[in-house]
Amino acid sequence: MDTRWKPNVTVAAIIEKDGRYLLVEELTREGLRLNNPAGHLDPFESPAEGCAREALEETAHPFKPTALVGVYLSRFQRPATQEDITYLRMAFCGEIGEQQPGLSLDEGIVRTVWMTLDEVRASADRHRSPLVLRCIEDHQAGQRFPLEMIYTDAAVASLPPLTAASA
């Protein structure tokens, strides 16, 4: 049995336009929650690529990360199952494109919603995690780091996946 601690690596898009932030309303095991467009990093992609993919899947808007807002570590204990989950989140800000007609939102995403910072703060009891507000507040405060702070080795995308026989 593998007992090594392995946090879940996630990426999040902090999207602001005209003083409003784009959030998604999604169905979770804990009910209907608000979140930044975010999700798990997939194999063979850089964090910035994963963020762009997740934003498109959850909002139907193309998203181009231009800066890292921050790297966050959080822990969540699911009340119903007592599951203990740790997340390592990389949050990016960037440029949003026009909504792509005909694209459906990812499974579980009910809708997208644009909210002011005050509205985001007032809805904190509905946030999927405390990182929703923290990432937006860091963005609002002007926290930005160059994308080059996260290096992705070429082997991430170029090596073939291991098969069960070779693992």
TrEMBL record:
EC supergroup of this enzyme: hydrolase
GO molecular function: hydrolase activity
Cofactor dependency: Mg(2+)
Nudix hydrolase domain: residues covered: 4-137
EC numbers, comma separated: 3.6.1.-
InterPro entries in the record: NUDIX_hydrolase-like_dom_sf, NUDIX_hydrolase_dom, NudJ
The entry's keywords: Hydrolase, Magnesium
SUPFAM superfamilies: Nudix (SSF55811)
Family assignment from sequence similarity: Belongs to the Nudix hydrolase family. NudJ subfamily.
Complex and partners: Monomer.
Protein's name according to its UniProt entry: Phosphatase NudJ
Native source organism of the sequence: Limnohabitans lacus
Lineage of the organism: Bacteria, Pseudomonadati, Pseudomonadota, Betaproteobacteria, Burkholderiales
